[in-house]
Amino acid sequence: MIDPVETLREVGRSSISFVPENKRDAIRAILQMVDAAASSSGGGTDWFDVKLAVEEVCMNLVDHGYGPAGGPIDVRLLAGEEAIVVTIRDEAKPFPPEKAPMPDLASGWEDRPVGGLGWHLIRKLMDSIEYESSPADGNRLTLVKRRAVPREN
Amino acid sequence: MEITFREVDEVTIVSISGSVDGLTAEGLQGALGAQIREGRTRLVADFTNVEYTSSAGLRALLSTMKEVRQRGGDFRLAAVRGEVHRVLELSGFTSILKLYGDVDAAVASYSH
Question: Could you tell me if the ipTM is greater than 0.90?
Answer without folding.
Answer: yes
